[in-house]
Amino acid sequence: MKFFAAAARKLTIVSVALVMMVATFFLNTADASASEVMITMGGKKGLVFEPAIATIKAGDTVTWKVGALPPHNVQFNKTPGGPALGASLSHKALEGKKGKSFSVTFPADAPAGEYNYFCMPHRGAGMVGKIIVG
Ligand SMILES: [Cu+2]
Q1: 130 C-alpha vs ligand 1 centroid, how far in Å?
Q2: What is the C-alpha to C-alpha distance for residues 9 and 117, in angstroms, rounded to an integer?
Q3: What are the φ/ψ torsions at residue 24 (nearest 5 degrees)?
Q4: What is the pLDDT of residues 101-114, one digit of tens each?
Q5: What's the CA-to-centroid distance between 110 and ligand 1, angstroms?
Q6: I want to staple 47 with a disulfide (CB 3.0 to 4.6 A). Which of 32, 89, 125, 132 is the partner?
Q7: What is the distance between the alpha carbons of residues 25 and 54, in angstroms, rounded to a whole number?
Q8: Ligand 1 centre distance from Cα of residue 70 (Å)
Q9: Which of 20, 21, 72, 120 is catalytic?
Q10: Catalytic one among 1, 21, 38, 122?
Q11: What is the pLDDT of residue 30?
Q12: Which of residues 4 and 47 earns the better pLDDT score?
């Protein structure tokens, strides 16, 4: 009986250590890979996203901030994930207050490729952008 108790205790210690190692690994990778990208909507060059093209990794967060000539919004029209993913990433509400921002986190399993979007009121003026998920 003593042997089993000792073995069980040993197993518990090993299990806890293993769980902690695995947890630490996931925490570290999350911290190391997730980053934030800031895009200004409307700037010195007029009705444009600055930068118009941004490269991120799946799981990253993109923040759009209202610059000049509002209102603006973000609507994804062509994404490798299809219309449902495009809709979930879109911010259709028009933002008219300079300096206001909103953030969108791309899912960790977002497929790589080019995510094209536009600003609804200024699409005709060429206010389009692209997020490249690498
Ligand atoms: Cu706009």
Answers
A1: 14
A2: 56
A3: -60, -40
A4: 999 999 999 999 99
A5: 25
A6: 125
A7: 28
A8: 6
A9: 72
A10: 122
A11: 45
A12: 47
For residue 94, what pLDDT is reported? 98
Dist. CA 82 → ligand 1 center (Å): 23
Question: CA-CA distance, 12 to 60, in Å (whole number)?
Answer: 36
Q: Could you give the strand order of the β-sheet that contains 72-78, starting from the edge strand earlier in sequence?
A: 53-56, 128-133, 113-118, 72-78, 91-95
The answer to whether residue 72 is catalytic is yes
Taking Cα atoms as reference points, which of 33, 50, 25, 30 lies closest to residue 133?
Answer: 33
Q: Name the CATH code of domain 34-133 (choices 2.102.10.10, 2.60.40.420, 2.60.40.10, 3.40.50.300).
A: 2.60.40.420
Which of 70, 59, 132, 78 lies closest to 101, judged by CA? 70
Instruction: Give the pair of three-digit tokens for residue 58.
Output: 């799946």
Residue with tokens 């979007």: 117
> Between β-strands 61-66 and 36-43, what pairing exists: parallel, antiparallel or unpaired?
parallel
pLDDT tens digits along 32-91: 456 889 999 999 899 999 999 999 999 999 999 999 999 999 999 999 989 999 999 999
